[in-house]
Amino acid sequence: MTKIANEAKALIFMTARDCEMYVRQSLASLSRQTLDDLHVLFIDDCSKDDTGIIAAALLGDLFPGRHTFIRNDAQFGKSRNVWEHLRPRTDMAEFIAVLDGDDQLIMPTILERMSRSYASGQDVVWTNFITDGGGLGGNGALDPNLSPRRQGWKTSHFFSFRASLLDNVPEGYFQDNDGHWFMAACDIALALPILDQTRRYEFIPVNAHCYTASNPYSHHNLDPQSRGLNSTSQQRSAQDAFSKPPLPLTRPAQSTAPRVAAPAFTSNRPSDVVSAAVAVGSADAWQATASEILVAGYPTLLDAQCAAGRDPLTPIQIWALRRAAFGRTDRPNILHIGAPRSALALASLISGQDAGLNCLCITPEQVGDLEARFITSGLMEGISIIETEAANVSFEDVSAIFPDTRQIGEEVKFDLVVVDLQNTSYPAESALLALPALASNLAPTGFSLCLFAQDRATEALAAQRWASVSAGLKFSLDAIGGSGLMVVGGR
Fold first, then answer.
1. Contact 196/249 with Cβ under 8 angstroms?
2. DSSP structural state of residue 168
3. DSSP state of 264
4. How many Å apart are CA 319 and CA 431, to the nearest integer?
5. Could you tell me how many helices (H) and strands (E) the chain has, helices first?
6. How far is CA 458 from CA 12, 243, 422, 427, 431, in A?
7. Residue 255 reports pLDDT greater than 60
């Protein structure tokens, strides 16, 4: 292949292995980009299925004359593919963007938007992402005054960088501490030495990328010891990547503040966000809009989502909790029971506010786990973790365990109670005990109780049972961002 310097604005680096179920949608999403000045470098990494056959045919149809297709006879892994196939082609484009063969772009103007950033002098540009299960990614802006290696992993999808920066990365940065090619955490191994060299980066706070977390061949789905989207091998490889010495900084920041694109909820809404709303449908558009507003108003929310664990709350669910917390008072007292995901979201929402969050746990293990997540996310302000015992509580014909609330004291009243039992060890019946067990601690002037049971049928049953024995309460199913049960009392 004859290389022509800067023959395209963007070189899209795609690697794929055994993802025949997803590669059609992935390439189709790329073909909808409004930036035509791109070239696709597609690597079939020795797939055992028809990934390569499907991709080769689609590339010819969708990107005639604008693609390079390579099939490896042996599995390389993304890091070796970067070294063997991407690095020799850095002079083909101004910037490189990384899109895996099982993922999709959901904002058709994002490459065009990134191209404007590179024209203005940026060296690394990235966005946030959602998962195919509705989860929200934890990406965010980096402080140019600190080494990127000290700020955690905030630049995963959709990641792009000025192509010439890759020329300066030694081969060893794509290998672990034993000298083997990274086979996991390859995105981190690529991003860190790129970020080392420059402080001219920009985070665009939109969800432009859909990460297919449900792919059964993904590392985190093959490892029962995975933590969220990270398998044990990814964690080990990430440690090796972060431990490497930073490359010399050659392009310092043009300003002292992190560059973050303006959130798209003002009257000056960029055209790419409007296009995204059309492209992904009204439901996803509302999620994207809520995400942009929340990230702008609550920067620590990204840190909270990073430590939230499996199935983090969606932006619309967090928006509903925000409204429930501050809808009646600007100084809410909040009680949380259950899954860490909602506790972390609440901690972010009250950060810097004159509000309190009390988290009730029934085992030392729950206390330790929750405290570690708060520390990891940097969210300890206004938080009280209370260890109590599991009590056997009865309500009508239902008997199950629930935290013993007697340690709180009846004089303590809460404006908002969140009971989140999804993905917890609580039995399903525990959800039916939330309102009767906490009735004496609900603010008489007005309160909201948000219940996430393990399934909708249990939430509907709770509403029916509680309505039959209470007066003056209002019950709304699916009112917490399209999920859960909302109970409202008082004025």
1. yes
2. G
3. T
4. 22
5. 14, 18
6. 46, 47, 11, 11, 7
7. no
Question: What pLDDT does residue 278 have?
Answer: 38
CA proximity to 101, closest of 19, 158, 30, 33: 19
Lowest mean pLDDT among 82-91, 246-255, 473-482: 246-255
The CA distance from 429 to 408, in Å, is: 22
State the burial class of residue 435 (Cβ atoms within 10 Å of its Cβ: 0-12, 13-18, 19+).
Answer: buried
Look at strands 67-71 and 38-44 and give their pairing.
Answer: parallel
- Written as one string, the DSSP assignment of 349-399 is HHTTSS-EEEEEESSHHHHHHHHHHHHHHT--TTEEEEE--EEEEEETTEE
Domain with CATH 3.90.550.10 in the chain: 8-260
Nearest-CA neighbor of 351 among 326, 327, 368?
326
Tokens describing residue 479: 């009112």
First to last CA, the chain: 73
The closest of 77, 119, 63, 68 to 95, measured between CA atoms, is 119
State the span(s) of the chain assigned CATH 3.40.50.150.
299-490
156-183 residue pLDDT tens: 999 999 999 999 999 999 999 999 999 9
Q: How far, CA to CA in Å, does 214 sit from each of 15, 21, 67, 68, 310?
A: 18, 11, 28, 28, 12
> pLDDT tens, 54-107?
999 999 999 999 999 999 999 999 999 999 999 999 999 999 999 999 999 999
CATH superfamily of 299-490: Vaccinia Virus protein VP39 (3.40.50.150)
Which of the 8 DSSP states describes residue 164?
G
Q: Which CATH architecture has domain 8-260?
A: Alpha-Beta Complex (3.90)
Is the distance from CB of 330 to CB of 353 less than 8 angstroms? yes
* Structure confidence at residue 134 (pLDDT): 77
